[in-house]
Task: structure prediction
Amino acid sequence: MLVTIEGIDGSGKSTLLNGLLEELKDLNPVFTREPGATWIGEQVRRGIKERINPVAEALLFVADHAAHLDTVVRPALNADKLVISDRYTDSRYAYQSETLKGHIQDPKKWLLDIHNGWTIVPDITFLLVVPVEDSLGRIKRERTESEHFECKNVLENVQQNYLELAEKDPRRFVIIDAKKDRDEILHFVAGIIRKNNL
Ligand code: TYD
Result:
């Protein structure tokens, strides 16, 4: 089973993932992430930092995804393992729809087309939703360096894109109010994963 965790920067994904690591130990899940599960992820990070052309940046994220599927996701699913990915294709749909505005005519369609036919759609996607002010506050407290995605307007639109994706695919998405207590969120999410992993 493939589970993905999504949300804007500073939405509490890392806290939830750290909790799941402990909480779901007995299920032996494969924890993975995008970008960064392959060496291409390092190039993605370099691309983000140097602010390369948005189309090039988007294609690097897609390349990272393709390699991630081959090296981690598909082998684990074939071995009947539970895979939990910190970010996945919906990150592209949400973030690159924003960064590609003005560079590509219809970014949403382009992004769907480029993944079509080879990506693996997750079984469940948990979307952490938080007011952008809170997420920015959290980013400022936790990091010294910030990425170009991490500004108010961009994150507002990214979160809106996420919510639209969830609305279109309510069977896959579980929306989480990330302002709730961290243990409450953890137990809720872990419970759903366990129930579906039977
Ligand atoms: P990451 O370092 O994993 O940040 P976080 O800890 O917030 O998850 O990801 C780096 C940034 O890349 C993050 O701001 C989200 C963005 N991103 C995209 O724009 N597109 C993508 O497809 C992915 C996977 C991430």
